[in-house]
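[Structure tokenization] protein backbone as discrete codes

[Encoding] learned vocabulary of local backbone shapes

[Begin record] amino acids and matching fold tokens:

___
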Amino acid sequence: MEKTPFRQGGRGVAARTNRLDSYQRAHNWLGLPIAVVYKLVDDQGAYLAALIAYYGFLSVFPLALLGATVLGFVLNGNPGLQQSLLSSALADFPVIGAQIQHNIHAYTGSGLALAISVLVALYGSLGIAQASQNAMNIIWGVPRNARPNLLKARLRSLALLALLGFGVLATTALSAMATGAQSLVDGVHLGPVVGPMALLASAALNASLFVIAFRALTIRRTTLRDVALGAIAASVGWEVLQIVGTYYLAHKLKGSREVYGVFALVIGLMAWIYVEAFIVVLCAELNAVLRRRLWPRSLLTPFTDNVELTSADEHSYSSYAQAQRFKGFERIGVTFERGQPATPVAGHIPVARLPEGKEKGGEEGGAGAGERSLPAPAPKPANSD
């Protein structure tokens, strides 16, 4: 019987998909990015980034209030600084500009506002550190029972905030110097020299901070080599976002009407924080995929169960199950019963396929006492015909 065009077309699509799958498995330049994206999807990386961005956005406005309060204390009784602020670009920004232009001489700080802004900013900053620790432990497949408890996690967060907060201030100052470096020494204009040097110094410091953050935010032991590539990529992304953010503030918001300016500022700030959080999560996924050799992945694994898993697929799915271990005496076994044996990957030990009804412990430990085997399915009754 002649086959329908629809089935012929379907077979053609399947053949092209199989060729593409075989190609990406054989070429790291394509297989590695696909594996990083697949692990990002498996770990729900967009939601992890959204949680980090939420606490980041929550801490921004208290920090802005803190800055405004400190500015009020500094400006009070200082006519020279008041005049300098009136002449700056800040006077053209929405809402803030109107306050500066009309109330600059009566602008004072508030002790109550200072206390409230410090407390809320600390809460939001601790939330960022907590959400980042949770994201990194998920990315590295750390079992739940091995993660720090509530008290230890917050103490780690405080230590990280003290260390990374200073570094963020330093890199921001260097980025500002790179953006607007204008220096004259003995009649020689040094702006073109100071700017690139400050930018390189800021990028190097950022990369160092990301190395520290990627290693400190997870309890899994990692080396400098394990996180170096992701830290460099995150540093480049941070610098690009700072340049884009500076341009957006200076050219898109300056002089805009107050209502439009407020909405543009809030939406732009939310988008900026989320994109940065997403880049950090993506770079952490890159580190984990490289360190644990989680590529190549089967091309169709996110879409169907009818696939031939690679050993990287099996290793990934086994680690996801092991990461849900809540107690040290809990044992989680993982088996893969369908399909043919997985394609071996160099430097990788594939998960063994066991007969039905048996279980095998994952990478965090084997099956222990008290573990029950899954019953084998009952055989189908013979056809009475």
Observations:
- The chain is about 65% helix and 0% strand.
- Confidence is low (pLDDT under 50) at residues 1-9, 85-97, 180-189, 340-378.
- Strands lie at 184-185, 188-189.
- The CA atoms of residues 375 and 381 lie 18 Å apart.
